Amino acid sequence: MDQCGWEFERFREILDKLEPFLHQTGYKDEDLHFIPISGLEGINLTERVSEVKWYKGPSLIECIDKIQPPVRPVEKPLRFCVCGVNQVGSGIHVAGKIETGYLQTGDKLLVLPSAQTAVIRNILTHEESVQRAMAGANVQVVVGKIELTDLSIGSVLCPVQYPVPVATRIVAKLMVMNTERAITRGYPVELYYQSVCEPATVSNLLTLVHKSSGEVIKERPKALAKNSSGVVEIEPMRPICVEKFEECNQLGRLALRSNGKTVAVGIILDVTVKGNV
Question: Which end of the chain lies in a sparser environment, N or C, as judged by fewer CB atoms within 10 Å?
Fold first, then answer.
C-alpha cells in the first residue's frame, strides 16, 4: 500500500475484485478481514497504523492472534494420505499427513487402493522418533511387511475395519471458475485431490444450482457456464481414495483443471465404490 501512497481508492479497488471471488468460494463476510500493510516498511504488521487516517482496524498480528485454532478430528477413523514414498536401506519411508484419527507404532493398517496391509515400524516428526502422531500432523513413517510397489502418492493408510472408499465414480457439487469453455458432458479434465492429479471425465451433468442457496435451478443442463454452480458425475481413469465431504472434509475436496487452468472447484457429495458399479 505504501507504493500507492496508502490511497483508499486503491484499497477499495482491491476489495471490489477480491470479495466477489471469495464469496463464490464459500467465505462469509465475518471470516474476511482486509488489512492494508507495507511488508517492506513493516507498517501495520505488529502495531496499528498511524499513517492512514481512514483505517481503524487491527494490525496483521492482532488479527492473526484472534484466529481460533481448528478442531482436529482425532476421534474419527485414521486417514493417512501419502504424498511421498522412498526406499531407505531396508526400510520403506512413507511421507504424508494425518487428516483424521491418530497413528502409533505397531499399528497394522490397510493400504488403499492396493488393498495390502502394512505395519508401522517407526514414526518420525521433525526428524525425531515418536510413538504416536495425531490428526493435523505431517509425518514420515517407516513401514514393513509390504512391497514398495504397493505404495504410491495418493495411497491412504487406514484401519482394516474402517477402510476409505475407493471410488470409480464421484458425484460432486462444482463452482465453475471464470473459464472460456463451458463444462459439458464428456469434458476431459485433470482431477486434483490431496497431492494427486488423475485424468478424469465429466460423465454427466445432473443439476444447475443456485450458487448461494444450493436450490436446483434446472435438471439435466446441457452445460455449466462460467461462474455457475452445478452437480455433476465424474469418472476418474483409475479408482481413487476419496470420501464424501460431510464425512471427511479433508478427503472431500477437489479441483478440476484443463489446459493448465483451474476450471472448477468443489466438494464430493457421493461416491460409487469399486466393486459396486
Answer: C
| pTM for the whole structure | 0.81
Pair type for strands 261-273 and 166-176: antiparallel
Query: What secondary structure, in 3-state letters, does the chain show?
Result: CHHHCCCHHHHHHHHHHHHHHHHHCCCCHHHCCCCCCECCCCECCCCCCCCCCCCCCCCHHHHHHCCCCCCCCCCCCCEEEEEEEEEECCEEEEEEEEEECEEECCCEEEEECCCEEEEEEEEEECCEEECEEECCCEEEEEEECCCHHHCCCCCEEEECCCCCCEEEEEEEEEEECCCCCCEECCEEEEEEECCEEEEEEEEEEEEEECCCCCCEEEECCCEECCCCEEEEEEEECCCEECCCCCCCHHHCEEEEEECCEEEEEEEEEEEEECCCC
- Please say if the pLDDT value at position 25 is more than 80: no
* Contact call for residues 139 and 124 (beta carbons, < 8 A): yes
Label residue 277 by pLDDT band (50, 70, 90). very low
- Dihedral sign from CA coordinates of 123, 149, 168, 203: positive
Mean pLDDT across 202-207? 96
Take residue 61 and report the three cell numbers written for it. Answer: 498480528
